[in-house]
Amino acid sequence: MNVNWRIRLIGLIVMALILEFIFSMILGSLGGFIGIFLATVYVGYVAGEGYKNGAIQGAIVSIVVSVFDGILLWIHTGVLAGGVGFAFAFALMLMLLLGAIIDGIIGALGGVTGFFIKRSKDHRREVPS
């Protein structure tokens, strides 16, 4: 079976963006983290091939989503248009970098969680009742 990874990755990023948006509208910043975590749990569940692969796939998806959020924030605040000073732009860059690191860690944890959920589900199927 040939899997188109490009389409799958695009779909997962879109799912992470949608979940992050929905949960952040309800719960604020914490909701955004929950949305990313849930999306990366799915990434780890689908990725298979070990917990390391789930962690890497989850981190990649969450960092890409974080970068996309950062670009939207830049456009929204007018940094690209030169509407703010250098100090604000530098502080914003540091916040975006910290957000990408935190999202990467959350994504990796979500990917590992998804892998272990799949593994425990597969082990239950193997045990005869």
Question: Could you explain the architecture of this structure?
Answer:
This protein has 129 residues and is mostly helical. The chain contains 4 helices and no strands.
> What are the secondary-structure elements, in order, as H or E?
HHHH
- The parts where pLDDT drops under 50 for at least 5 residues are none
| Class of secondary structure makeup | mainly alpha
Task: Please tally the β strands and state the result.
Answer: 0
What key phrases describe this protein's structure?
85% helix; mainly alpha; 129 residues
Sequence-ordered SSE layout with sheet pairings:
Blueprint: H1 5-27, H2 29-47, H3 51-77, H4 86-126
Helix pairs in contact: 1-2, 1-3, 2-3, 2-4, 3-4
Give a short synopsis of this structure.
With 129 residues, the chain is an all-alpha fold. 85% of the residues lie in helices and 0% in strands.
